[in-house]
Protein 1
Amino acid sequence: MKRFVCIVWCLQCWIRLDAQPEDVFNRIIRLNKQKGTVYELLMEVSRVSGFLFIYESTAVDNDKKASISSGTYLLSEAILRITEDTNLQMKLIGDHILLFKPPLEILLPLSDREDWLVGGYVRDGQTLEPLPFCSVLVEEGGIGTVANSEGRFVLHIPDSMAVTSIIFSQMGYRSKRLPIALFLQRTPDIFLEQNAINLQEIVVHYVPPQKLIKDMLETRTKNYAPFPAGLTSFYREGMMYEDDFVFMAEGVFSIYKTGLEDGRIDQVKLLKKRKITNMNFPDSVLIKIQAGVEASLQLDIVKFLPDFLNSDREALYQFSRVSMDMIDSTLVHVVAFEQLDAISEPLFKGKLYIAADSKALVKAEYEVNPRLIQGSGANYILKKSRFLEMQPQKIEYTVSYREWEGYYWISHVRGDLHFNVYNKRIMFGDIKLLTAYFEMVTCKIEKDDVQRFSHIERLPSGKIFSETRFEYDPHFWERFNIILPESNITETIAKLVLTVEEEKKE
C-alpha cells in the first residue's frame, strides 16, 4: 500500500509541474544578429528571457555552429532556430527550461525503496570541460556526494526530498541551485559560471597570513562541532600500474565522529564492502601502500593538526597570502605555505582556504615537498616485492569542509600517491608509474542519538581495508550514493565482470 501511495504522489507532482502558463514559450523576445555556438546563443536567450536552460549533451550539440538574425521571436521559435532541431521538446520547471528528445518518461522511485535516482554532468560554463570533484549537496538534507574526475555524479535521494533542490558548488565558480525535478527524467549537463571577484566592490585590508591562521585556530571551537556526530561515508581505495587496473575496494562506513576537542579516536563501522581485482595482474608485483581508512580519518586536519598548523609552525614554514577566491559563494583568503629552505626533512607545501567572514578553514590542498620527496618513500611503502625499486614522485592530499546547520563538517578527503617502479630482474627495463589513491566522502550527517560502537562492531582503522573480509551485497550497491569511478576503470570493471559471467556458463 505504501508503494502505491508513493506512485500516486509522483504523478500528482508532475501534474503540478506541467500546470504552467501556456504563454511561456509564446513569449516574445528580441535578439540581435549573432553567430556562435549553440551554447553561446542559448546563453544569449537566457540573458534576454530570464530563463535558464538545462539539457543532456545527447539532446543538444553545444559546439555546433549557429546563427540568428536580428528581430523578434517567440521564445520557442528562437530555441528551435538556434538548435535547428524540430524534434526538440521543451518543458518549464521553475525558472529552467528543460530541453529533451521524446519520449519523456516519468521515473518512479526505485522498486519499493522509495528512493529517486538522479545524476548528471557538471561542466565549466565557458570551456564546457568537465569540472572534477564538484560538491553536490541536497539542500537542507545533509545528503551529498562529489562528482568524479569527469564531472559525473549520481545521487540516491529519499522520496521525502524529491521536492527540494540540489546545490552544485566548486571553488572559483558561482554555486547553482536546481530543483530535483529537473533530474527525475534525464542526466543533464550542469554548467557553472566562473566567479570573477570584483575587488573594486570589496574593501580588502591586508592581513598577515600568520594572523589568518591564528584566527582560524582560535575560532575552531565555534566553527566545528564540539559534540559527536554520526557520519555515513563512502570510501574507496585503489591502485593503477601504468594504464593497468590492479584493484579497487569500496566501502560504506558509519563513523562515530568525536567532537573537536574529544581526544578519543573516531570509530568506524563497516556497513558494506566490495572489491574488484584484476586477476591478470602479475603476482610478482606485490606492493602495499600506506593509505587507507586511518589516513582518511587523520586528514581531518582541523581536528588532527598537521605540522603546518601547529604552534611551532613558524620554525618550520614560511607563509604568504596569495589571493582571494570564492568557495560555495564564500569569499576566502588563500594562504600558501612551504617549508623553510634550512629544513632538510621532507615536509609539506600547499594552500589553505580560510573563509573571510567565519575564519573557518574550508579547504586545504597540499603535497610532500617535491624537492625532498625522494627520501620519503619509507613513510608510505608498507610492503613490496624484493625485486622492485620504488621512488615516490608525487604525494598529494585534498581536504574539504562544508557548512551545515551552523558548523563545518569534513566533506571530502582524497590522497594520491605516485611512485616510479623499477624491476631489478629486468636489465634496462622501463620505469613504470604506480598510483595508489584513496578518498572518503561524507554522504549524510546525523546529530541526534549518536552512540559509540561496541568493540565487535568496530573496524580497526589501521588494518588494510582491501584485505578486510566482508560479504558482498549486490543489491545494496545498486542504490548507494557513490563517487563514480573514472571511465577507464569503469570499462575495465565491465570487462572483468563479463569475463566472470562467461566463465560461469562454461
Protein 2
Amino acid sequence: MDMTDNEIMDWLRQVEHPAKGDKNIVELGMVENVETDGNAVTVTLCFAKHRDPLAEYLIGSAKAAIIRNAPQGTVVEVRTVVKEAAPKKKPGLDLGTEQVEGIRHIIGIASGKGGVGKSTVAVNLAVALARLGYKVGLADADVYGPSVPKMTATEGLVPDAVLEDEKEIIMPLEKYGVKWMSIGYFAKPEQALIWRGPMACNALKQMILQVHWGELDFLLIDMPPGTGDIHISLVHDIPMEGAVIVSTPQDVALADVEKGVNMFRNESVKKPIFGLVENMAWFTPEEHPDEKYYIFGKGGAQKMADKYGIDVLGQIPIVQSIREGGDNGEPAALSSRPDGLAFVALAEKVAEKAAGRPV
C-alpha cells in the first residue's frame, strides 16, 4: 500500500511535545520535510539552535507513530536539522531614517522645565533661519502640548499622506518658508493626548521619520520639557546633531537647565550643546524701547553658561508683540522690529555653530 505525505503528517500529529502545552510537532512547525520512496519514509525534524532536552524522545515518538500506522515492513528514518530562531522584533515602529538623510543639521530645542517659551523660541528661530535663506523644517515633538498649529495659524489643516515604496509618508505643511509638522494637526485643539511613554515615543518618531522633509539645511525639533523617556528615545533614534537649551533668568528655571545640560552630556546620550537662549531676559515697554526691566533676574544664563563652558546664543526680551504674534499665528521673527531682529541674530549664531561642526 502506498503512503501519502498527508497520511504521514496525520500520523505525526499524534506526537505531542510535553513542554509546549501538549501541542503536536506538526502544529509547532517542527516537521521540516517528509519523503517517501517505496517502503522507505524519511522525516526531517527541525529544532532550534539550543538543543531541545526532549529531542530524543520526540525523534523516537515520531518514528514510532509512523511504524505503528504504516504497512508492515516500512523502513523509517528520522533526520534532524538545527535552525536559529528568528530574532524577536523590537517593540515599536519599524521606521528607517531615509526621510531625514537629506537634512544637513538636526537640532533639538530643549528646556529643563515648561513655561520658559521654548516653543516660541523654536518657531521664531525656524522662521529667522528661513529669512536668512536656509531651507528649514520644524517638527513639533511636544506631543503633550503641541503649539505649532496655533503659533503658525495652521490650526485645522491636515497634512496629506502619499505612498512611497509601499510606505505611507506624511507631507509637511509649508508656511513662512518653513516646513511644519506637529501631532496637533492630527488631534483636535481641545483633545487631551492621554498616552503612556511608548505611545508618545512612537508618535514622536512618526512626526520626524515618516515625514517627507526633502533637502533641508536645518530641521529643528521642538522637544517636550524635561528629561524623560521621550528625550532618550529621541537622541537614540533620531540622528540629532546637538541641542539648544532655552531658559529664563529665574533661579528655578536655571536649576532645571542644569538637569538638561547633564542629560545631554550623560554617557548614554552624549550630544553637544550648541548653547543657551535666555528668553524673557528683560521687559521692554513698547512705548519706551530703550528701557529694560529685569523682572526675572539678570545674568543668570551667563553664569550657568560660564559654569558649564557653553555659550549664550541670544537674549530675547519680553515684548508684547512676541506674545501677540504667537497668538495670532504670525511669528515675531517675520518683522524688522527689535524683537524680530533678536531672533535673526539668534539664527545667525545657531547657523555659525552648526557650520563649525562636521556635517
Protein 3
Amino acid sequence: MNKREINEIKKQFTPEHCTITRICGCYVDGDKNKKTELAQTFLMLTEEENFKYFTIFKNTLSGAIGKNLLNMEFPTEQEKTGGTQEFLLRLKSSKLEDEKLVEEFYDKVIESYEYGENYYIILIYAAYDVPGRTTDGVENEDASEEVYDYVLCSICPVKLTEAGLCYNEKHNSIESRIRDWLVAPPVHGFLFPAFNDRSTDIHSLLYYTKNSEVLQENFIDKVLGLSTPLSYKAQQETFQDIIENSLGENCDFETVKTIHENLNEYYEARKDAETPPELDKMEIKKLLEDSGVKQASLESFDTAFDNIVCDEEQPKFSAATVASTRSFDIKMPDVVIKVKPERTDLVETRMIDGRQYILIEVNDSVEVNGINVRNVDVETGEIL
C-alpha cells in the first residue's frame, strides 16, 4: 500500500464517513489473563467513545512506509487450510460475529505477544464501498465497483495514570487525583487484507509498529505467519555494510557521494508511484554501476551481498529507508558536518601539502553559534 491508499482508508475514521460496523476488544493484564471483553455494533458507542477510537485507528495507520508501516505478503503455505492467512480470512468473513473465532484470535495474540504489562486488543470490521475514479482522479460515488471489507487490529498499552493533584470543580478544591488505567495509543497492529491498487489484496497485509526497532517477531510469526522483515535501522546498517564491503579500498568520498546522489534521484523519481520503491540485489548493483564504481568492486559485489544477507529469500530494501533524503552526513571523531542532500556539490575533497581536506564552499551567509560572521581574506586579512 502507498500513502494515498492508506490515507483513503484513514478518511473513513470520522463520523461523516464511518464504515465500521462491529468492534471487539479484550483487556489483558500483565499475567496474560483476560480481564474484560467488548463486542458490539460500533455505532452503539457514545459519540465521545467513537472519537477516541477513531484516533486509535488513525494512529494504527500512521508513520512512514518502510519504517512504521510495512507491506507484507503471505507465503503460499499460509493460504492453505489451517494457515494464518486462511484464519484471518475466516475472521474477516465472519464480520467478527463468530464469538469462537474472535476468542481464538485473542488466544493467539496473548500467547505470542511479548509484553509484560497490561494491554488492550481492539478488532474492528468495516466495509468500504470504494468509489470509482475518473481518468483525472476525481472520485465518482456512483461508479463504485467493489466493496473493500477488512479487519483492523490495534494493540494498545494500558497505563496507570501518574499520581498528582487536581482541581475538583464540584467541591471547588485542590485534591489528590484518582489514579486510573488509561488506554495509550497503539504500539502494534495490522490491516487485513491490504488495499493495494485501491482494491482487495487477500495475499498481503499492512503491519504497524510504533517503534521501528520493536517489531514483535513472535507475534508476526505465530499470529500472522510471516517472516519478520529487517527493521528500519537494520535495513540501513545492512545496506551500508554491502556498500562498504563491495567497494573495499575503493570506498572513497567522491564515490560514496555519487552513490548518495544517485540513490536520492532514484527515490525522488519513484516516491509517488503506486508501489513504494524498493531495491533488490540487481538494482543495488545497477546503482553502483551508474555511480561509476570500478569493475573490481562490481565483481566483488555478489559475494559481499550474499555474505552479509545470508538469506535464501533475498530481502528488498525500502528506498525511502536507505536513501538519505534529509541530510548528507559527514562524521569524524571530532567533527560532524550536515549538508542538504541536494547541495552535496558544495562539498569536495582536496589534497593540500600532502594532507587530505574536506572543503565546503562558503556563501554569503555564515553563522557561528547563532552569530552572523563576515568572510575574511586569509591572505590580506580584509573583510570580504
